[in-house]
Amino acid sequence: MSKSLLNHILLLVLLFIGIILSLSLGSVSIPFKEIIKSLLALSVENSTWDYIIVNYRLPKTITAILIGSGLAVSGLLMQTLFRNPLAGPYVLGLSSGASLGVAFLIMGAGLLSGILGEFIFSKWAIILAASGGSLLVMLAVLSTAQRVKDTMTLLIIGLMVASLTSAVVSVLAYFSNSDDLQLYIFWSFGSLGNLSWQEVGILASCWFIGLGFAIFCLKNLNALLLGENYAKSMGVELKSNRILIIVSTSILAGSATAFAGPIAFVGLAVPHLVRQLIPTNDHRILLPSVILGGAILMLICDVIAQLPGNENTLPINAVTSIFGAPVVIWLLLRKRKLNF
Amino acid sequence: MSTELNPDKILLSTSSLSIGYKDKRDVISVAEAINFEIKAGELVALIGINGSGKSTLLKTISGQIPSLSGDIKINHQLLSELPLKDLGAVLSLVLTNEHVSKQLTVMELVALGRHPYTNWLGNLSQEDLEKVNQALSQVDLIQKKDKSCESLSDGQFQKVLIARALAQDTALILMDEPTTHLDMFHKAYVLKLLKSIVKNSQKSILFASHEINLALQLCDKIILIDNHKVTYGSPLELIQKGAFDALFPKDYIVFDEHSRTFKMKISED
Known about the structure:
The structure holds two protein chains of two kinds. Chain A is mainly alpha-helical. Chain A has a single domain, classed as ABC transporter involved in vitamin B12 uptake, BtuC (Orthogonal Bundle), CATH 1.10.3470.10. Chain A contains 14 helices and no strands. The longest helix of chain A has 35 residues. Chain B has two domains: 158 residues, Rossmann fold (3-Layer(aba) Sandwich); 79 residues, no CATH class. Chain B is 29% helix and 27% strand. A six-stranded mixed β-sheet of chain B has the order 6-7-8-3-9-10, sandwiched between helices. Chains A and B meet through helix 9 and helix 10 of A and helix 2 and strand 6 of B.
């Protein structure tokens, strides 16, 4: 059996363990046997337990898998497109776009409340604002992508858009009251819970569409490893390919941000973590491993965020970085180099 | 795309070609009235001082930038009428200073040369594998095929890039300074490798180079760009025309017709 296949099996086992842990741990302790019963739609001893599993833990576990893998895949796409190990899903300003949308909704609410009434405080309003913000940034980036010849220019434009939008958010924050500010900050902490089955369904549809685009690009992503000039000489249409990659990233990372808030670190780190285990740059092998790796990392972070045995939870966005960053630093120091 | 063994087959020809750059306001011409023909099995060097337009000519012939006027024909087909997706089956490139990922095995990198022929997912067929192995053995790298490109020396990595172009299996290969960064032995080694490739496979190679002395000894034809003008012919023809006499300032480098080499001028006073 090849080493890469063996490592994929290892990742699958880890994913399975992650799913079990994520389903079994929480503020209410539920016997493992009852969790299995509930998942198999058998009768459960305590109907509250059944309710918690079906309507709270299971959607959250699925959300963690979708968001972790979606962010990891978009990180991989951006790193290859820009040939830069520091690129991540948010390098083109998607999360700052989403933040801007939500910031306008929450902190600019005074202006809008007359028109929208109670709607602005609903969860759907935040999701729509985040998607709208990301979409706006994505359209701006796509229109520049049509015009610029050089991918590096696109990277710099993305970073400029990101700092521009964060500046606007700062201005909004400066003029807003403490309640609104707190609401905004809570959104920016990120959250995997609270998604209804309907919302999980929408997130999953976005995931499938975004991943479909990514799979369509796989062959050209490999050609891009040789650099754009070689890729073009072998018949890769650079512009349309670049647009496909941006659209895929935007759908995956944009939907993740809309439903769970901006989650740092996962998209940037997972491709590097996975390459430590499966040292290749062939995207046909990397894509499935990155999907598994992203899902596993997100599930682990979710379990840690639950603070098992405690009623409080930590903000997921902080957990991903606090626990993830040292792991990556340790791995890199051990191997002494980045497999890129 | 394999070439029939027809030594007089013209693979690349240009007629009244002008090359350069244009934008909305300016047209910057680099060289005009470029006429040459490269036949199957020929090794052709593209010679010129820094900034003379060697790279511009290579980029124009490979379809990366448009020509200002005139025609380029590859396999008797106009380059301007060739869709981008078919170009990869007609000509391949070996470039220097490209940001090529070295996090691939030799085999993986060379196999990327099969890109124009593989299915949508890029899976290699039996034929693809044969072509890749053939390319690897042509540059004598078959025993290193599972090594990471990172572990190779500059000379070996250059051979990997040449093997990638060979795996692409095109009649014409264009190379931009394939011997830069190499020591004297490896420069000679790579050029002799190119010579053996064209002789054994009836492919044609056009390469830009500063190795004028080596090119004069080895190449079938030379394209010389000097001061916006392009001269084309066999090394002997160009020497007889005196094309090399004024290539460099005479105080520094002179062409010695007797030994057919350029020599540095060292003043004796």
